[in-house]
Amino acid sequence: MKNTHKHHKGLHCAAATLLALAGCNMAVARDLTIVNFGGANGDAQKVAFVEPLQKELGIKIITVAYNGEQAKVKAMVETNNVVWDAVEVETADLGRGCDEGLYEQLDWSKIGNKDDFIPEAIHDCGVGTFVWSTALAYNAKALKTVPNSWADFWDVKKIPGKRGMRKGARYNLEFALMADGVAPKDVYEVLSTPEGVDRAFKKLDELKPSIQWWEAGAQPVQMLAAGDVVMSTAYNGRIDAANREGQDMKVVWNESIYDLDYWVIPSGSPNKALAEKFIKYASSTPAQVAYAHNIAYGPINKQAITQIEPALQANMPTSPENMKNALLSSYDFWADHGEELDQRFSAWSTR
Amino acid sequence: MVHALILAFEQATSRRASARRADRNTIMTGSTAGAATLATRKAMAATSRKQKWKAFALIAPLALFLLFIFIIPIAMLLYRAVDNPEVIQRLPRTLATLERWNAQQAPEASSYVALMEDLQQAKDDSGSGTLARRLNYEISGYRSLIFKTIRRMPFESDAPLNAAQVKQKFLEIDARWGEPRYWQAILRNRSPYSSYYLLASLDLQRNLDGSISRVPPTTSAFLSIFGRTFEISALVTLLTLVLGFPLAYWISTLPKRKANIVMIFVLIPFWTSILVRIAAWIVLLQREGLINKALMGMGLTETPVELLFNRTGVYIAMTHILLPFMILPLYSVMQSIPPTYQRAAVSLGSHPFGAFWRVYVPQTFPGIGAGTLLVFIIAVGYYITPALLGGAGDQMISYYVAYFTNQTINWGMASALGFLLLAGTLVLYFLYRRLTGRELGLG
What we know:
The complex is a heterodimer of chains A (351) and B (443). Chain A is of the alpha/beta class. Chain A has helices at 2-27, 39-57, 70-78, 91-99, 108-111, 150-154, 172-179, 187-191, 194-207, 219-226, 236-244, 272-282, 285-294, 302-307, 310-313, 320-323, 331-350; strands spanning 32-36, 61-65, 86-90, 127-139, 163-166, 211-214, 231-235, 249-264, 327-328. In chain A, strands 1, 2, 3, 4, 5, 6, 7, 8 and 9 form a 9-stranded mixed β-sheet that branches. The radius of gyration of chain A is 24 Å and the shape is globular. The model of chain A is unreliable at 1-17 and 19-28 (pLDDT under 50). A two-stranded antiparallel sheet of chain B has the order 1-2. The radius of gyration of chain B is 32 Å and the shape is flat. The mean pLDDT of chain B is 86. Chain B is 72% helix and 1% strand. The chains are: A alpha/beta (351), B mainly alpha (443). The A-B interface holds A 68-71, 74, 96, 98-101, 167, 201, 211-213, 215-216, 226-228, 332, 335-340, 342-344, 346-350 and B 126-130, 132-133, 136-137, 140-144, 147, 217-221, 224-225, 228, 286-288, 308-309, 387-388, 391-393, 395, 400, 403, 405-411.
């Protein structure tokens, strides 16, 4: 009898703990959780967005870093267990997620006046976070001949050595066409035809023996600093962050491809109102100016753009000088042809 | 874990078989001790039944746990490899009108009306995204066609449109709606199950007439990727065996204390995070890294050797990371081999080396089998090492599973590739069991 009594008591204890835990989960409201790509970008957001808002609203904001995996968001929304409130996503993911109902439709009256934003930053499901650029980068300490176009990137005689390129079809096909003489504004038109795609891959064939592929944003900086490559495609923000740490790397703005990241709110998030407040703050002028001071990404707030010193502006994708011959990455093109071209790229890289 | 379950079950049933054999023996020893043996037989049967139920009761929690946490979710995920719900869900009326379509030219106006109703409903339900994505797999560019059309809905007009006018509207929006192949793409997906993902994973496609043919060489990648995956895994398995066997043998000949110390050196890297080890290899293998500096300092090479972002780096890092998986099974088997056999062979006149090869090594076969199988199966599923250390042509199949899962959210392809990998691994495992005639035991 003593045994069964202990047995029952044990069971009671276990049941009570479980119920308490379950109750706890539902009773305590979750802190606002914002998700970004981490790295130098994450650090700049912490200083410019998260900490001031924490002070202003008196709440705790949890920051999570990820590498763009939308599978997590999809799983969260499908199981109705959303633990992320404001997520930074790339253009392709914004379009796809919005179409499939993964993200909430935004109430722009809570976000701000649409006239204050650059036109590319306005979307049904997303608000632009910043403008970034994929461009040609090189180490000024190691390279004497200065490249200034993709034709130079492809010219192994003029500038011998390895080149770094992002693993995948995106950007590389556009750069290949530009190196082959296509003007930036015509690139997507040419690339929409089968002959254009063949032309881009043929051009990539020329450079293939000298290419070293990178996957993560931090790798080109590492490769350039170590001297593994003489030139690389890279995100301009990472190059700028490296320069702040003492490196001497340069970005070629001519023929660069710029794009935006967007804030989205996964469907069914319990902290939707707070997330909207966060996005509103992150898009406001003082926050955007503070952010731009910490990392060389362009603001999406028109007022903020005018308030940044020319010296800093020169490093940003949004300065008129740098936008002159730049190309906006086409969401429509990559949404339609992304998988097909990535598959062709995989087949091409095997040969 | 599943294998442990199978083993335990087999042992439980073999105990039942041996109990039955004992019964038969009792019967054959004669009916003179009839009554006594009958009672003994019944008692033995009762105990063996109790033992069997005890075995089941012990296994049951683990089996149920595995079933719900492991087997059922994996089965559900693999089901996505053949699941084809999008067109059936979103275009039911259109499919109904296409049943009697001859598939040669553009369909009748009634199909266009049905399509308009279906697309309007999809727009209202936010289902247009998944539909557009699925059809885009059939014909590239279908996605923007669907969205272009939906954006213009509902069609503006003063009076309700008749069927011919609806068809006209569609053709005005985009001439592609008049091409049969876009409608054939819809018709092809009227079954709830689709072979599209599995065929695509093998570089095959289904033609309009239903036959299967190979995908054009410019886009066929997966067969060579599977081949590459198995090739890399096989070579890494061989390298770990060649490097691990002498080390395990040496450790097994050491006295206990020294053996423990050396085993700690084997286990500490094993317990270190894999990303830390990969980062360490990147630092060592890069052009300005320690290995190249040492090679150039010793005068063995003039220019730095390319050890990173190519197949060599992948082999080096994977071998290093998978060595403990080879050493530990080998060591555990070698420990249980008494040295007397070798000594006996030498005393009978064998050359020591011959004694080693013909007496000792065959006794280590269970360990070799276990080690190679373990290393091979782990290597086949490797993702992060080739992703960080390899070039574009060194990616193994898991990289593409991750690509489809995370970047394009094409879970059908991810599941199909995963299923094929699982099937390939199971086939190899059963081949292994056939060839060696033994279980994954360690002695």
